[in-house]
Amino acid sequence: MKITNAEIVISAVSQKQYPNDQLPEIALAGRSNVGKSSFINTIINRKNLARTSSKPGKTQTLNFYKLNNAFYFVDVPGYGYAKVSKKEREKWGKMMEEYFQTRDTLNAVILITDVRHEPTSDDIQMYDFLKYYQLPVIVVATKLDKVPKNKIDAHLKRTKETFEMEADDYLLPFSAEKGYGKEEAWNLLKKFI
Q1: What pLDDT is stored for residue 180 in this prediction?
Q2: What tens digit of pLDDT does each residue of 51-96 get?
């Protein structure tokens, strides 16, 4: 898919700020610093629509990116490393929970993980949470270029098994660095937008 128009519409913290144009939405979730912004920038062919940061925990709101005036990517706060207070983390948790539970236009969630490492307990908790709310999940195993070719299959199998992925979920190998998996990502996403 060719993205000719991409803009951040709003950084929302509650339901009353969400866009109300009823366009389909795909949310992006993952640990802080796992590469959500890099995934967005790679897939839409932009250098820095989504800000990448070396400091984990930079995304603290629900960032609604409108693409081709046809659908949204919604970047949610990362979990895991962020050096923020427990109170702040609870606030993010409530904000994300409200979004995932109430948003009618949310069609799927991309859960980004680092293929080099086994999914963490936070990753598993997020996957289980999304499945509980019956949301379609696309697990994007990123940083594929950092794994030796002869070990890729084993790493992907480990990811699938650790999540105990359901048959209707997708596992997508991806590399923002090399652009690997970009076309496959769009083929999948078209089903949800």
Answers
A1: 93
A2: 544 444 445 789 999 999 999 999 988 876 555 667 766 776 788 8
Amino acid at 171: L
State phi, psi for 114 to the nearest 5 degrees.
-95, 115
- Report the distance separating Cα 138 and Cα 133, nearest Å: 14
**CA–CA separation, 37 vs 51, rounded Å?**
6
Residue 127 CA from chain centroid, whole number = 11
Q: Could you give phi then psi for residue 10, rounded to 5 degrees?
A: -160, 150
Which residues have CB under 8 Å from 110's CB, separation 6+? Answer: 26, 27, 28, 29, 39, 138, 140
pTM of the full structure: 0.89
Cα separation, 104 vs 93, whole angstroms:
19
Say if CB 32 and CB 60 are below 8 A apart: no
DSSP structure string for 77-94: PPBSS----HHHHHHHHH
Three-state DSSP state, 27: strand
Ranges under pLDDT 70 in the chain: 48-59, 80-85, 88-89, 92
| Tokens 């929970």 belong to residue | 97
Distances (CA, A) of 105 to 4, 60, 101, 102, 153: 22, 21, 11, 9, 34
What pLDDT shows up at residue 84? 60
Contact between 70 and 60 under an 8 Å Cβ cutoff? The reply is no
The angle formed by the CA atoms of residues 30, 128 and 42, to the nearest 5 degrees, is 25
